[in-house]
Amino acid sequence: MTPTPLRTPPLPAAEVRALSRALSAGDVTVFVDGTALRLPAAARDAVLDLLARLGRGEGVVVASDDGAEPAASRPAAQPSGAPSGPTTPGARSGSNIPLLTTSQAAAAAGISHTYLRNLTDAGIIPVEYRGTHRRIRLSDVEAWLQAQQAARPARTQDSGAQVEE
């Protein structure tokens, strides 16, 4: 069974202009759930091609290429109930939850902001970007702290067992 292709209609004129300006800058970074991701060359080229087409005001269809038949011979089915536009990676529901700067999040966690940035770069603490600025949910910092506290007794027990031997 071939998955139904995703149809994205042409973007509104204002979005076309904004996307076109962004692509002309030449600096393209992909964020997945707020984390910067370096795409392999083939994937990067495919994404840039898709964005360039949207930037020219074209509608696009994204479908898997399973090698069974050319894409042109597949039926162009319109998914029912599909969103009218692309979804934004990293967009989360509950956007009214306050986001912390890296300095605020580091202070809340009791760690340096450099260590916090390393944790966000590694994907250990989720991060969202507002332009080039990192924003972190307090709940994500608290979850990381709880995981650290839960791991601490296990490490203490392990080191205690070595001392007793």
From TrEMBL:
GO terms for molecular function: DNA binding. Coiled coil: none annotated. Residues 99-148 form the Helix-turn-helix domain. SUPFAM superfamilies: Putative DNA-binding domain (SSF46955). Residues 65-97 are annotated as: Disordered. InterPro entries: DNA-bd_dom_put_sf, HTH_17, SinI_DNA-bd, WH-like_DNA-bd_sf. Residues 69-91 have a biased composition (Low complexity). It holds the Pfam family HTH_17. NCBIfam families: excise. This is Helix-turn-helix domain-containing protein. It comes from Arthrobacter sunyaminii.
